[in-house]
Design goal:
Strand content: 15-25%
Number of domains: 3
Oligomer: single chain
Shape: elongated
Helix content: 40-55%
Structural class: alpha/beta
Number of strands: 10
Length: 400
């Protein structure tokens, strides 16, 4: 390929030679444009005095189906203002081994593809791509911004296998992830309130969370004026685990001699846990038949449905009335698992009734958790938690 056939994409330089050192690889040797005066890398002023120069080999964005490498004679100027400095090149960052054009291409690709795929596509090392993306994320999301935040949503998610968790905190009004940190203890989330500051903490009106004592205590310490709102999704999920599953297993064990009936109950877990509105017609029929045939399961299913109604009360007074009715039914049910759950739930009543004043919920964070799982799968696991947390913040920049 004739070097003169290539246009010059590299400001301040022109093409001197072009060769193909290997199949699928193109190497272009550049030379300084004699018509342009180099600029000082320190102050940016034109500096015609050249102290020395050296070759640097850098990677540029692929040219069609070929890997593109550049050989550049980078000069060190003797600037009258800043001393001896490497010349400033607009399309090449200081000490970089790849052009800004390639950097921009990598940044665009990692928003759509897993890092491993981008690495295979471009022939760059995994860590090189991660470092490029991390710098982009730090520039956009590295600084904490809690200005104007009034209501928070807090939740935890599985960071790694083996019961290792992280905590994510979101602005409930803009749906922007404000902070992500490793751990789910009081000590783990304390840095968030330190970043928020005394003034920011005083501005918080309400915080939605699950029944996590650590979250509760830390919020009350830093934001005593804030109302804690316990989330419906987590309470109902816990009712499903601690009550419905327990009663279902007990009923199945009681029917050991009736194997067909026992099998029906053992397979009924998702019918009992899912909302009726989400069931297919044939599944709804199966649920009705199951509840008609088993009184304890019908009781806990009814209690699960009426428990949700407490959160949808139009005001605190109505919420209190619904709670008293539900609590009475729970105690009168005679089912040990139900009675135990109701008594454990009672100390959290204020946070439950607060949902009538502050329509906050962490169901949006369930969507966040699902997106987090996708991000982890795309990265085939993150070895750098700080980078992973930046990816989460970038995925939820909030709405205006």
């Amino acid at each position: 390929m004739n070097a003169m056939e290539l246009p010059s994409f590299w400001e301040g330089f022109c093409v001197e030679a072009c060769e193909e050192p290997a199949e699928g690889t193109l190497q272009i040797t550049l030379k300084a444009d004699p018509a342009r005066t180099p600029s000082c890398g320190g102050c940016g002023r034109p500096s015609p005095l050249i102290h020395d120069w050296q070759w640097r080999r850098v990677r540029d964005r692929d040219l069609l189906d070929r890997r593109l490498w550049l050989r550049i004679p980078l000069r060190r100027v003797d600037c009258l203002h800043s001393g001896r400095r490497r010349e400033r090149v607009s399309w090449l960052a200081p000490r970089a081994r790849f052009t800004r054009r390639l950097q921009a291409w990598v940044e665009a690709l990692v928003r759509m593809l897993p890092i491993q795929h981008v690495s295979a596509l471009l022939g760059l090392h995994w860590t090189t791509i991660k470092d490029i993306d991390r710098r982009r994320l730090e520039a956009a999301h590295g600084e904490f911004d809690g200005h104007g935040v009034r209501r928070l949503v807090m939740d935890e998610f599985a960071l790694h296998k083996g019961h290792r968790y992280a905590t994510v905190i979101m602005d409930a009004q803009t749906l922007r992830v404000l902070w992500v940190g490793e751990g789910n203890s009081r000590k783990a989330i304390a840095p968030f309130f330190a970043l928020l500051g005394e003034e920011g903490c005083q501005a918080i009106e309400a915080v939605a969370m699950d029944m996590n004592t650590a979250f509760d205590r830390e919020v009350r310490q830093h934001c005593p004026q804030a109302e804690v709102v316990y989330d419906l999704f987590h309470v109902v999920a816990r009712f499903g685990r601690e009550v419905i599953d327990r009663v279902r297993v007990d009923q199945a064990n009681a029917l050991r001699q009736d194997k067909p009936a026992r099998a029906v109950i053992k397979r009924s877990r998702w019918l009992l846990l899912r909302n009726r509105a989400n069931l297919k017609p044939e599944q709804a029929i199966g649920l009705d038949e199951l509840l008609a045939a088993n009184q304890p399961l019908a009781t806990v299913y009814l209690l699960k449905t009426s428990l949700k109604e407490i959160w949808y009360a139009p005001d605190v007074r109505e919420g209190w009335r619904r709670w008293r009715a539900w609590y009475r039914l729970a105690l009168e049910s005679g089912i040990v698992a139900v009675i135990r759950f109701a008594k454990r739930l009672k100390p959290y009543l204020r946070g439950i009734l607060a949902s009538a004043r502050y329509r906050l919920h962490t169901s949006v964070l369930e969507g966040v958790n699902n997106r987090i799982k996708v991000i982890k799968r795309m990265a085939y696991g993150f070895r750098d938690s700080a980078y992973f947390f930046l990816k989460i913040k970038a995925a939820f920049p909030g709405k205006a």
